[in-house]
Amino acid sequence: MIFSIGSHDKDDTISLGQAIQDSWSKRKSQLEHEYAVTGWSLSILPEIRLNVSSDLTGEHCLMMENVVERLYVPSCPNEQVSGQDMTAIIDIFCKSSSTGKI
Which of 64, 80, 84, 90 ranks highest by number of CB atoms within 10 Å? Predict the structure, then answer.
């Protein structure tokens, strides 16, 4: 299947798959931000859990750490983590994201 972009010259024609991939690449930085990655990693949907278990990387974990640090600033109202060291809070958060048990 051929997908035409722009004029109908043969040089301007690309596949539909390539058009989708190009479109994703242009928007990736806007769509793949820290909060989106965190939401993806904590999803309870079985299909997404499988995807997280196979595709979660160290870069994703660093993005999630940034979100956790913003959410659990000192004087956090969450009694389960209030007063704990930020490293301990991040460990709890990352463990729940990798196991799917929140």
Answer: 64
